[in-house]
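Hi again,

Forgot to attach this to my earlier email, sorry! This is the prediction with flavin mononucleotide bound. I've pasted everything inline since the attachment limit keeps bouncing my files.
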Amino acid sequence: MHHLETFRRYLLPCPVVPAPMCGYSDRPFRDLLRSMGARLVYTEMISSEAMARGDPKTWQLMDFRGEEPPVAVQIFGSRPDVLAESARIAVHAGADAIDLNCGCPARKVVRADCGAALLDDPKRLAAICRAVRRAVDVPLTIKVRWVEDDARTLTISRLCEAEGIDAVALHARTRKQGYSGTARWEWIARLKETVSIPVIGNGDVATADDFFRMRRETGCDGVMVGRGVVGNPWLVGEILERLDSPDAAREPGGEPSPSERLRLLRLHARLMYKYRGPHGLVEFRKHCVGYLKGLPGARAARPELMQSTTLEQIDEILVRHFSQIES
Ligand SMILES: Cc1cc2nc3c(=O)[nH]c(=O)nc-3n(C[C@H](O)[C@H](O)[C@H](O)COP(=O)(O)O)c2cc1C
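Structure tokens for the complex follow:
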């Protein structure tokens, strides 16, 4: 029970929760999101098998030294004992919560009986929840999708709740849908009526208005935002501001100024370099597109930034293309 209270405490200061995203939810992005007011932040999904065998690359994902808590580590796998062991390792490394990926639709993942495949095998999933619950003394959550043609996600969530899960996040799409079509928020409302643990709604929240509409329409306790914060981490701050002063709810605004966009772009690039070295700047390119959106001059700067390999080059390109930048 105390884990549930701990999890509620994580959600309380900031009910907008950045989603776990492969290739995005690294230390630099987590830190940036926290600087916008996010509290509970997830890692990308991490292989329990790789963790348990001590794979060095996987180990790098678990360096939480100096990181502001709470960080939730998302694990994926199919074997209860291995998942339990990886959860133990993650907590030892500093995880403040463990999330079990039960929603990834990628073929490679599903073929290995991981991710969304767990929704086809409730018995195994229950055994996993039981094993992981026993292994760690931090909140334990699951992230699921909707199952085609029936309400299995509801029964599965109840089953997991009975096994001691503290919250469930629902990406309101089916596995077949992948990322296409629209998220069906009514499924989140049904889940909220079904379980008593916190429900985190997820899918197609791209603006502060979407956040408030999802909360209103589904009654969910938290809203998870994935693609909506890529290139736009300010969304977290905008939502928090509107939560603090509901009178401001109808005011436009929230759009960062061009100089703020450029400031954050540079800061993000520096964090990428600090934590991930030169390769971090290659990884950074995919964030650039989002930051440059709406900036006059972006069209010319983008292809150059996509080829840049050093911080000096990035600065030089920005100074050349944007008058708001001071060299
Ligand atoms: C590039 C990318 C990587 C993702 N990686 C993960 C992941 O590692 N674990 C996970 O549970 N979901 C992952 N997702 C799914 C998101 O967490 C989220 O459920 C989905 O994007 C829907 O939310 P959105 O409409 O706010 O983006 C990923 C999504 C994207 C676009």
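The chain has two domains: 2-250, 258-321. The pocket of flavin mononucleotide is lined by residues 19-24, 44-45, 74, 101, 103-104, 143, 171, 202-205, 225-228 (CB under 6 Å).

That should be everything now.

G.
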